[in-house]
Design a protein that fits this description.
26% strand; Arc Repressor Mutant, subunit A; 9 helices; Transcriptional regulator, GntR family; alpha+beta; UTRA; 11 strands; DNA binding
Length: 295
């Protein structure tokens, strides 16, 4: 085991530093769900601290639900609860969870008029007069997704942030704006979390996220929204319903995972977060190919 003494110049308590290091390894699956953590003696040697500090760190992780402990046995990395979403359905996360009896909470972070939407949003909506809506989705206080939605400003001029608190945007569109989300196209990308989104979702910067993005049309075929929704890959699973031979979902790692990054020296360890993101995209692609063949 590599010895990694704590930083005694760090203002954080020693147990918090140890809990942070172990939490990152569990999140990146260096310690996989169900795996046993090193013993207290091994952790004492690794971090150069007393038994009481190690026990306090493990107690912190147990309180968070990151590990399970049984008297007389080493701690075990907890298997996280996974929530499933059908990615090719027009209905949003809120409505899908509601149908399963789960109450998803929504915090509106901002709603503002802008003329500087991302190119994909302005192309899809056909205007630069936009509303930019940012929301956080959580379940039982556990952050699941960060959602950024672009809307045509003229059509949704009466939209108010208070309307969207713990509510479904699609349901609101239908009930107050006579706009029924009917069809659209979706893409999935495996991406590293930027610092702001990482902070909101409670993950490390560059942690692997699943980005679902796409545009939606109403019952008349008019463009209704463009959205980007970042999901915690350790909490949300994307399900795919495959029918016939038609491509339903486009799956690819985001270029930011491989572009503009220096080549690692031969034999050097790769970042576990990036490995997981790329592996996740490959597994999704393989599963879609399998379903298409069986169909």
């Amino acid at each position: 085991m590599i010895r990694m003494p704590v930083d005694r110049t760090d203002p954080r308590p020693l147990h918090a530093q140890i809990a942070g290091a172990l939490r990152a390894e569990i999140r990146d699956r260096s310690i996989a769900p169900g795996d046993t953590l090193p013993s207290e003696a091994a952790l004492r040697e690794r971090f150069g601290v007393s038994r009481s500090v190690v026990r306090q760190a493990l107690a912190t992780l147990e309180d968070e639900g990151a590990v399970r402990r049984t008297r007389g046995r080493a701690a075990v990395a907890a298997v996280p609860t996974e929530h499933h979403r059908f990615v090719q359905r027009v209905t949003g996360l809120f409505d899908q969870f509601s149908a399963d009896g789960l109450r998803l909470s929504t915090a509106v972070l901002s709603l503002e008029a802008t003329r500087s939407g991302v190119p994909s949003a302005t192309r899809h909506l056909g205007t630069r007069e936009l509303l930019r809506l940012e929301r956080m989705r959580s379940l039982d206080g556990d952050p699941l997704s960060y959602v950024r939605t672009w809307l045509p400003a003229e059509r949704f001029a009466a939209l108010d942030a208070a309307m969207l608190r713990d509510a479904s945007l699609h349901r609101l569109m239908e009930e107050r704006f006579a706009a029924v989300p009917t069809s659209g196209r979706r893409q999935i990308r495996a991406v590293p979390a930027d610092p702001r989104i990482a902070r909101e979702l409670g993950v490390a910067a560059d942690a692997p996220l699943l980005l679902l993005e796409g545009g939606t049309f109403d019952q008349q075929g008019a463009p209704l929204e463009w959205f980007e929704s970042w999901h915690r890959s350790d909490r949300v699973v994307f399900d795919i319903e495959a029918e016939g031979a038609a491509d339903q979902v486009r799956i690819a790692p985001d270029p930011s995972l491989t572009a503009s990054r220096p080549e690692a020296p031969a034999g050097a360890a790769r970042e576990p977060g990036l490995d997981r993101a790329v592996r996740l995209a490959e597994e999704l692609r393989a599963e879609l190919d399998r379903l298409r063949r069986e169909g």
